[in-house]
Amino acid sequence: MPYGERPLEEIQEFALGITGFLLEKGAKAVVMACNMSSAVALDAARERYRDTPILGVIEPGARAALTMHWSPSPLAGEGQDEGESASCIGVLATTGTVKSEAYVRTIQRLNPSARVIQQACPKFVPLVESGQADSEEAEAAACTYVAPLRSAGCATIILGCTHYPFLRRAIQAAAGSDVTIVDPAEETAQALSNILLERGIASDRLDAPHEFYASGDTGGFADLGSRFLGRPIESVETAIWGVDLGCAMKDAAV
């Protein structure tokens, strides 16, 4: 981590190995809660593990953005008509997600008339991971990255990385109160709930135990994960790449 600047083929290998690891642990469903993993590995994982529901975050986020009420944006530049400004969707994402064009393809598959403006945000993840989400540096970065989307007249902005909700205040301030911010994580959680209920595999337990694994620094994972979840993570087990993780990719190559 982070995945944003890594080669797409490497990220696919990571995602498939992690998916296999989770299924070996007994997972009844898997969420690729990373935009990069969703962009490059979701189809391959679904093909390999056909009996298990596997969700990504890109399509739920795209659907949520498209269902927003479109109204002419006062931020639209000259030469744009009302229909263009109303249907413009901005995407803030890592460099890798932007390069994959996964949001562009998904949004335009769902609505071919929608315009999509992407913006890579390489400074965002380091700011969040270093605890500077509310800093002046974060505000300055948000202004820089949001500016092209404002100029294009985007009425909706998708947070195309799981770290970006921590920067939501800065992003909203840079975009203006008339711009709608979409967090794909919220839509993905609802989609998962629907699938579990439809398949009759939803749990009614309110006290289900949680297990956490990390292939790197478990202490750092616990600290950052606790901030993500809003509650303490007390125990993290180590998963070793190439031993516990990555077996699915190795088996496929044999």
Q: What is the strand and helix layout of this fold?
A:
Elements: H1 8-24, E1 30-31, H2 35-48, E2 54-55, H3 58-67, H4 82-86, E3 88-93, H5 95-100, H6 102-110, E4 115-120, H7 124-129, H8 136-152, E5 156-160, H9 168-175, E6 180-182, H10 184-199, E7 213-214, H11 218-229, E8 237-238, H12 247-253
Parallel strand pairs: 1-2, 3-4, 3-5, 5-6, 7-8
Helix pairs in contact: 1-2, 3-6, 3-10, 8-9
Describe the protein in words.
By secondary structure, the chain is of the alpha/beta class. The chain has a domain at 59-184: Rossmann fold (3-Layer(aba) Sandwich). It contains 12 helices and 8 strands. The chain has helices at residues 8-24, 35-48, 58-67, 82-86, 95-100, 102-110, 124-129, 136-152, 168-175, 184-199, 218-229, 247-253; strands at residues 30-31, 54-55, 88-93, 115-120, 156-160, 180-182, 213-214, 237-238. A 4-stranded parallel sheet has the order 4-3-5-6, with helices on both faces. Helix 2 (35-48) links the parallel strand 1 (30-31) and strand 2. Helix 1 (8-24) crosses helix 2 (35-48) and helix 3 packs across helix 6 (102-110). It is globular, with a radius of gyration of 19 Å. The two termini are 27 Å apart. The model is unreliable at 69-85 and 248-254 (pLDDT under 50).
